[in-house]
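Q&A log
Question type: sequence-to-structure
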Amino acid sequence: MKATFYVHNIGCKVNRVESDTIRAQLLKSGAQGVEREDAALIVINTCTVTSEADTKTRKAIRQAHAFEQQPWVVVTGCSTVLHAEELAKLGERVVVEPDRAVALKRALKLLDELPKRGKRTSSNSAKKKTAQAKTTSKGAGSVIAMDFGDDDALRVGEGFNTRVGIKIQDGCDNRCTYCIVSTVRGVAVSTPVQKVLTEVKRAARAGARELVFTGVNMGSYSDEDYDLTSLLQASLEAAPKARIRLSSLEPLDVTHDLLRCMVHSEGRLCAHLHLPLQSGSDRILRIMERPYISSQFEIIAHRAKSLLPQLALTTDVIVGFPGETDDDFRKTMALCKWAEFSKIHIFRYSRRPGTPAAEMEEQVPAPVKAERAKKLSDLADKLATADAERRIGTTELVLVESPERGTSESYHVVELSGDYEPGSLVPVTFSASKAATLVE
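Response status: OK
Response body:
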């Protein structure tokens, strides 16, 4: 067997950075990245934020295990924290390890042993070999692996996203009643500032022109004397030819200092904020234990757009939260329309065992959730089109992702006509044909 592998990512941008880190380390070890069906080893980095994510995880494991190549399947990440024993039973060559750092070590060991084994023909033999390799995790517990892999393993180039993720934080100290993330990710932890700056410099030197800062709750960043804004300022200085995009921020973490930093960066700190709203109803926000009310969100959005007229504002909304009435939903629709979001990620509420909301009465029927999701989706499409049309005639720097496609500062996909080098930043004036849909 050749030392070939594939890394399958499920979930958020934080997961993507972790998956890219695993892939970079496996490449550095000398293994060859191939298509999933051709790999001798498949690593699956999982998500458990919704029941749909858990379903995707189980499906991915079964598919990987069934390939003719008979690969080893190393499963790690958030879903394994809650469902380790269940996932380990999905195949005799399935290795479950919640800690991503340990999972990486196991993957490296398996790859090292592959050439010595030859093609696996006996399922009984494989079962014996994996019996001791399956998870040692018992029950739920937080998994934080801030520093795993090798700093020399670059996540830039062929096989990686043009936009390079930089994980600056993990975990969350909030306890929203619908969310399981604080259980599986643990308390908020910040990546040391010097490690962040080192990654920023190395990625920029390797040619990355857009760095995406990611974290579970980035606004909580704190290391030495640095908060998020001062970290961004230092990072802009460390990578003068790159721009930085923030993946997601809690609304109350959008400070005046942060907005001023965005204004003075002259486009190098992208005028794009993703602020999870979740609901436009104060009653529902209170039951969710979100730390703001709708009027505070409106003030923050108004201040940001006043200082940055070109700002693209995107959001997350949960429909069908327990007890949500038609009036609550109307308030959500009204706030979304007022805010003129350029993209709305819509989630139908999903019961997560272990969260307070899962035990609440007045669970909303599935057909009602589906109807509300459809109405909000229709509004989201109209708002996205309106935002794109407002930009016609304006010019933004676009990150070239392929000869025909790029991503603007405002996170729109634009069609390119010209001989542009992938990975470069080029000024593009929006026209009707280039004001397309937003990046997913």
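Response note: The radius of gyration is 22 Å.
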